[in-house]
Design goal:
Distance between the termini: 49 Å
Helix content: 40-55%
Number of strands: 2
Radius of gyration: 28 Å
Number of helices: 7
Largest sheet: 2 strands, antiparallel
Shape: elongated
Oligomer: single chain
Structural class: mainly alpha
Order of helices and strands: HHHHHEEHH
Strand order of the largest sheet: 1-2
Amino acid sequence: MMGPLAAVNSVFSKFFKIMGRASRAEYWWYIGFYVVVMIAAVSFDVWSLGTAGVVGKLSYNPFDYFSTYWLLINFVPSITVTVRRLHDAGFSGFFFLLYFVPFIGGLMVFIMMLLPSKPDTNIYGPPPHLPGSGTNRRMSTDRSGTARAHDPMQGYAVLDRINEKPTPEVIAARKEEVRALYEQRVLGRPAPT
């Protein structure tokens, strides 16, 4: 289960990412954090207006208030996490547009946010609560044959060994492999067992 700090970190690290899935915990911890900070920002704005004298210092410039900055900072991540949460519940991200339907649209999206995650992998990816999900990791093996996570720079490691001469055992094994493949594919002989 995702905690509040991990959820907020996940949402802000996927700032522009619409593809994928967001669990209920990730979504609701982020929304809770957003609301708490928004209440604090609005409270500070009201307090600063009260201490400066509301009548003479009321500003019509929205950038004079901290709550405006908080709204701008969270505009994109709140949309992307909602779309990913819709994906997790098994809906298309276009259901986000229901927010623009008067009266009932916001309520419908709210209900969709409460629905549980689909347990299986869907077209948007694996469930976010599975270990290692969210990343599409391929497994490869090293020289000893043990599995390890894929290293994107692995192909360039060959360039470090390009001038190494193969041992006679490696050359003999390669020749035997080519011979067996030739006999099987060209001559039609069955593969040795």
